[in-house]
């Protein structure tokens, strides 16, 4: 038996179940089990900068040594995501071998016997051993009868005994995926058959390498197990392109890393940063991944906390109330504008409708990104769900629309085609000025209600970030550029991610102008209102307010995603739309202000 426990699980046991951890440590010391190391926060190494790869591996090794009392020789890489540039980091962290899937070997030109022997690989002159998990045995153990599994293993018998069959998979297959009692009985029967079969040698990976060595050198392409290759399109970082929310978290991680290095952050800040690299929120396959709201929330909590600690320790804001940066934050070739204050970060993307895509609350103990929403994407497993229409824009804050006159709240949230008759939502806004904590954007869009005579409307949108007042205020000035009367239904959309409680099984709630309190999983419409207030456990009330009365639509952002137990609906955020029915003569303007405060 060779065991791996993720870093987060070891930390969890250490904090909450030290007695169990002590028993586990004693069991390991009295057994012939081999224990594999891993990354500190179960992070996928191919997403990390070089320095973080080594740090994650070394700290993961130290965690195993501290909690279980053994020094691991082998490495379990999360989701078995292999990258050919990993050997130097693995070697520097003190590991001699790593376990990957046979899929990686086959895609690199190896044959069947090759992936049932240990090989060596190298990068930049640093080498590491590789053992391959047998793919077919993962699909029959424990799903087939013990005798059938044992027969498959025997099929690899040779005179020299150098071929191995390595089963490497999740322990949850013995209790979570099927009945726990039946799974335990299966395992007892199977182990009994193995012990009684003299034709099968039971070895740990280290024992195998000691007895049989390596068969030679191999170079392995990027890869993972077969399903992950399918979900990722063959290369794990593709998830960063597929999901803008994943890319947002990843680029926030890189940005925070730069700030921690610059400010010579404390060990505590670096610990928070490393915990934010836990892999689950950065991808999606059979499990919820990035669609699980708690995972996104936790990543931002750790990142924002790491950033806050580094800023406080260094006196980052001494003499400056605001720090404004124009940079390509998300690496798409176009600059974003980042407004940072001691209490808040506000990130604006002019090229995506001039929207606010991240709003970090930097309150001690309540660190949170109020815009960690999740948009709905076109997923292959939803193709037969005709009522599920993916979002055509990212559900964040301060995005403008002009609705068709007969549009409803259901049309808006369910993405009825052509319900938005303008080009404001995805417009590439011009940065007119940056003045302290203010950002002025403009865009000339068209109302295509009458496709023969689209009406030009010029919009000036001014962001003001008031960190000390816990407020972001946006002023709007819409101007009719035509020589004729127009009456558009203007809209300002704000999508939020109220903070969820980890301890209590209770959703955030909201009211509209003091209406009946509703769960954020329920929708509401008002023909004449100004204020939406959202209350979350252990977090300040969040208020979205318009300076003018408007028709107000409020709706949960609900998505469907695949799990091992079928499709599941999940809450991803709360969307608010302020709709203004205006009448504008030639050259006339309509002004309003929408604020977001907490």
TrEMBL record:
PANTHER family: ALPHA-AMYLASE-RELATED (PTHR36306:SF1), ALPHA-AMYLASE-RELATED-RELATED (PTHR36306). This is Glycoside hydrolase, family 57. SUPFAM superfamilies: Galactose mutarotase-like, Glycoside hydrolase/deacetylase. Coiled coil: none annotated. InterPro entries: A-amylase/a-glucTrfase_C, A-amylase/a-glucTrfase_central, Gal_mutarotase_sf_dom, GH-type_carb-bd, GH57_Enzymes, Glyco_hydro/deAcase_b/a-brl, Glyco_hydro_57_N. The keyword Hydrolase applies. The lineage of its organism: Archaea, Thermoproteota, Thermoprotei, Thermofilales, Thermofilaceae. One of its GO terms (molecular function) is carbohydrate binding. The keyword Cell inner membrane does not apply. Residues 234-309 form the Alpha-amylase/4-alpha-glucanotransferase central domain. Pfam families: AmyA-A_glucT_m, AmyA-gluTrfs_C, Glyco_hydro_57. Residues 328-383, 385-586 form the Alpha-amylase/4-alpha-glucanotransferase C-terminal domain. Belongs to the glycosyl hydrolase 57 family. GO terms for biological process: carbohydrate metabolic process. Keywords: Carbohydrate metabolism, Hydrolase.
């Amino acid at each position: 038996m060779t065991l791996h426990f993720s870093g987060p699980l070891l930390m969890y046991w250490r904090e909450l179940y030290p007695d169990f951890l002590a028993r586990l440590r004693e069991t390991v010391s009295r057994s012939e089990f081999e224990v594999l190391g891993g990354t500190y926060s179960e992070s996928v190494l191919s997403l990390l900068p070089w320095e973080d790869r080594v740090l994650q591996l070394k700290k993961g090794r130290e965690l195993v040594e501290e909690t279980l009392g053994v020094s691991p020789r082998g490495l379990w890489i999360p989701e078995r995501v292999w990258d050919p540039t990993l050997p130097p980091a693995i070697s520097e962290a003190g590991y001699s071998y790593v376990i990957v899937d046979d899929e990686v070997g086959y895609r690199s030109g190896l044959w069947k016997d090759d992936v049932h022997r240990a090989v060596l690989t190298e990068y930049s002159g640093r080498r590491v051993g590789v053992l391959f998990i047998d793919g077919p045995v993962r699909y029959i153990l424990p799903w087939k009868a013990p005798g059938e599994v044992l027969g498959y293993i025997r099929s690899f018998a040779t005179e020299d005994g150098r071929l191995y069959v390595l089963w490497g998979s999740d322990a949850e297959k013995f209790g979570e995926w099927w009945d726990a009692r039946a799974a335990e009985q299966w395992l007892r029967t199977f182990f009994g058959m193995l012990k009684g079969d003299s034709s099968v040698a039971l070895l740990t990976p280290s024992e195998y390498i000691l007895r049989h060595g390596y068969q030679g050198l191999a170079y392995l392409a990027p890869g993972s197990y077969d399903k992950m290759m399918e979900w990722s399109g063959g290369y794990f970082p593709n998830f960063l392109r597929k999901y803008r929310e994943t890319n947002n978290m990843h680029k926030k991680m890189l940005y925070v890393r730069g700030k921690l290095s610059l400010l010579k952050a404390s060990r505590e800040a670096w610990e928070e940063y490393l915990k934010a690299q836990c892999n689950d929120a950065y991808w999606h396959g059979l499990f919820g991944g990035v669609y699980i709201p708690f995972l996104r929330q936790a990543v931002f909590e750790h990142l924002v906390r790491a950033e806050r600690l580094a800023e406080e320790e260094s006196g980052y804001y001494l003499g400056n109330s605001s720090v404004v940066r124009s940079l390509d934050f998300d690496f798409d070739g176009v600059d974003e504008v980042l407004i940072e204050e001691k209490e808040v970060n506000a990130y604006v993307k002019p090229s995506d409708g001039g929207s606010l895509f991240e709003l970090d609350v930097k309150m001690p103990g309540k660190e949170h990104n109020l815009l960690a929403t999740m948009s709905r994407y076109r997923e292959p497993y939803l193709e037969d769900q005709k009522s599920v229409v993916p979002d055509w824009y990212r559900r964040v804050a301060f995005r403008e629309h002009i609705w068709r006159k007969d549009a409803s709240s259901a049309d808006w949230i369910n993405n009825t085609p052509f319900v938005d008759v303008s080009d404001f939502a995805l417009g590439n806004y011009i940065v007119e000025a940056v003045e302290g904590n203010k950002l002025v954007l403009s865009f000339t869009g068209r109302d295509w209600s009458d496709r023969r005579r689209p009406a030009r409307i010029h919009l000036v949108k001014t962001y003001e970030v008031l960190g000390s007042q816990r407020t972001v205020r946006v002023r709007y000035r819409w101007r009719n550029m035509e020589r004729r009367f127009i009456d558009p239904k203007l809209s300002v959309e704000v999508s939020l991610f109220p903070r969820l409680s980890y301890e209590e099984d209770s959703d955030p709630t909201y009211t509209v102008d003091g209406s009946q309190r509703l769960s954020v999983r329920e929708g509401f419409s008002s023909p004449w209102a100004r204020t939406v207030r959202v209350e979350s456990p252990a977090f300040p009330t969040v208020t979205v307010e318009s300076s003018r009365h408007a028709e107000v639509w409020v709706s949960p952002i609900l998505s469907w995603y695949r799990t091992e137990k079928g499709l599941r609906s999940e809450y991803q955020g709360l969307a608010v739309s302020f709709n203004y029915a205006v009448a504008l003569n030639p050259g006339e303007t309509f002004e309003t202000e929408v604020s977001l405060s907490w």
